C-alpha cells in the first residue's frame, strides 16, 4: 500500500534523495508502478543489495581505463554508495600530471594529480581520499554532503578525516580542513547537509545537527543559545498524514518552550540558498537583540 498521495518522476525522486537511496525510501516517493518501470527500462539501476542509483558508474570506469585515470571526486563518492547534492553531469576522473589525456574534453570532468598507490583501490580513490578531493575541488555545501554521507557510512572516522585533510596538499588544504571540521554523521541526507552549510555561513548563528529540545523531540539543526530550531521539511517525511500530525505537534511544543521554528523546503535550500540565508540571518539578528534586551532587563532588576 502506498503511503503518499503524490508521486514524483523516478529520476527526480532519486536526485532528491542524493542520487543513491534504499529502494524503499525511493519507492515511497515515486510509487511502485513507476519504480518498477524505471528499473525495467534502465533509467534507475539496482547497485547493491537494496539500494538503487542512477546509471553511469560502468561508463565512468570505462572512460577511466581509456584515459589512464582513476575514478575520483563525485563519481568515486557514488561508487562508495554515498549520497551527493546532485549527481555529476559528467564522470569525474583524476589523471596523473604526466598523462597524455586531453586537457580539454567534453566527455569527463578531469582533475590532475599524482595519486599515491595507497589512495587508490581497484581504480577508484579510497573513501578518505575521495572526501578530501571533493573538499578541495568543490563548493562547501557540495563537499559537506559527501563528507557527511561518508561519515554515516562508517568507512572511516572523523579523526581520520581530519588527519587526512591536514596532510593534503597546501593548495586547497584550508578548504579540506573546513569541511572535515564541520562534517557530521548525524545529518540524515544532502538536504540537511546543504541547509547546515548555509546556516554555518550566517554570523552569530551556531548550529548543531539533530539536537534534542528537552524531551519534546529533535530538530534537524538547533542553536541552543538563541533557541532557534531549523527544520528541513521534505515530502519524504511528511508524505503520510500521521507524520504530518506528529511534526505539527512537535513544532508547537518547541514554540511553547520559547523556541523559534524555521522550516525550509528542499527546492528553496537547493535552488534558492540566498533566500534561505537571508531568513536565517534576519532571524539570528532579531533573536540576538531579544537576548541582549532580556539580559539587560535582568541586570537592571
From TrEMBL:
Residue ranges of domain DUF559 in the record: 222-281
One GO MF term attached to the UniProt entry: endonuclease activity
Keywords linked to the UniProt accession: Endonuclease, Hydrolase, Nuclease
Superkingdom classification of source: Bacteria
Hydrolase among keywords: yes
Designated name of the protein: Very-short-patch-repair endonuclease
